[in-house]
Amino acid sequence: MHTDHCARKLLPWLDGMLDADEAFFTEHGIPLFSSHMIDLSEESVEYNIQTTAKYLARTAPWKQWLEMEIGITGGEEDGVNNEHVDNNSLYTQPEDIWNVYQTLSPISPYFSIAAGFGNVHGVYQPGNVKLQPDLLVSGKLGQPAGKPLFFVFHGGSGSSVEDFQTPIGHGVVKVNLDTGKAVFSLEIARC
To answer: 116-135 pLDDT, tens per residue?
Structure first.
């Protein structure tokens, strides 16, 4: 079971779920939830990364997965409306992804990054979105030896097979799809 898009105002709710995770882990050896997702993308990059690091440190002993969102994903989801954001803002800066990796990887390997590479929440027609998944591996990022970066592709609806294949080749391990009626996640196994 996974929680999704926990914004700053919902962090006390996440704290309660982590209390339940901890109690369940103490009794059963596994956390109650398989993963949580923190979405502090509306906050400053520094606050986002440091707060996520605090939560990752708490979940690390349980080997529980933590997804975090950084940068802007276009469209609208969960009351966050980025439909009118300038297209140039839909791309997470590689330096921010590198900062996430440098901060979180010493704490635990059980995290993924939902970074913006032109992706948009919601249903859209093919060709309306300009994906640039190469940003995920540009500069310092690459795939660090022995410690790959795990990315999440939010807003995969309307994407072509190639739109999926290229990001998956760059470290995407989960894709979120919106059918207009329900949102689905597809987790890609990594060997």
So the answer is: 877 766 655 555 567 777 76
Return the HEC string of the chain. Answer: CECCCECHHHHHHHHHHHHHHHHHHHHHCCCCCCEEEEECCCCCHHHHHHHHHHHHHHHHHHCCEEEEEECCCEEEECCEEECCCCHHHHECCHHHHHHHHHHHCCCCCCEEEEECECCECCCCCCCCCCCCHHHHHCCCCCCCCCCCCCEEECCCCCCCHHHHHHHHHCCEEEEEEECCCCEEEEECCCC
Model confidence band, residue 185 (pLDDT cutoffs 50, 70, 90): low
Residue 5 is predicted with a pLDDT of 80
Catalytic residue list? 4
pLDDT band at 64 (very low <50, low <70, confident <90, very high): very high
